[in-house]
Specification:
The protein has six helices and five strands; from the N terminus they run αβαβαααβββα. By secondary structure, it is an alpha/beta fold. The longest helix is centred in the middle third of the chain and has 20 residues. The two termini are 26 Å apart.
């Protein structure tokens, strides 16, 4: 890719054109500066390498492909909780905490974060799981996307939807020092499924 075309991609994130695309799975929808800046930096870094860093909008549940992956995650979570019923309260409390934290953010600030995402990120809303998708590879990271204490772990966050040779992890973290024993076996399987870490 010429330096001029690369500069166009960096300055205009939505000018995808025929650029070679790399899908990014990360925390992109939170209302905090760290998440916003890390997704912006990673997408720009990928683009500076001559690819097009495209942020996968995997949280849009109006899309059937996202609902299917969410159901797989919920299935994993449910089976883990059935084996250890005490974890049901962990899941419920975590959801309540996320809602409380989100409710504390003023509306005008939420609007600014949405505006930032729409202006500076290239969000991909189509089905990214198909063989016909335009992605050379997928990157998960660079943030606390691997919540090791969430029962069952997430399908999307470990790129389980993609061919193994397309799965790359870049600076992901767990957000804690230890991995609970109820997630260790599944985590080992997910990590072995990555092409590069």
């Amino acid at each position: 890719m010429s330096e001029e075309n690369n500069e166009k991609l960096i300055t205009n994130p939505n000018s995808i054109g025929n650029a070679r695309k790399v899908g990014i799975i990360t925390v992109y929808s939170g209302y905090n500066y760290g998440s916003a800046l890390q997704v912006f930096a990673l997408s720009r870094f990928v683009t500076s390498l001559g690819y097009k860093g495209v942020v996968i909008d995997y949280l849009d549940m109006s899309q059937s492909h996202n609902r299917l992956l969410r159901l797989l995650t919920l299935k994993n979570r449910l089976f883990t909780c059935i084996k250890r019923p005490v974890l049901f309260s962990t899941v419920i409390n975590a959801r309540k905490k996320r809602t409380r934290v989100s409710d504390l953010v003023p509306t005008f600030l939420k609007e600014k974060f949405v505006e930032f995402r729409e202006k500076y990120l290239c969000l991909y809303r189509e089905d990214y799981r198909t063989k016909a998708s335009p992605f050379l590879a997928f990157i998960c990271g660079s943030d606390q996307i691997w919540h090791s204490n969430s029962p069952g772990l997430g399908e999307v966050n470990f790129l389980r939807f993609a061919d193994k040779q397309k799965r790359i992890a870049y600076a992901p973290s767990f957000g804690r020092d230890t991995v609970p024993d109820y997630n260790r076996k599944r985590l080992a399987k997910c990590l072995r499924g990555l092409f590069r870490l």
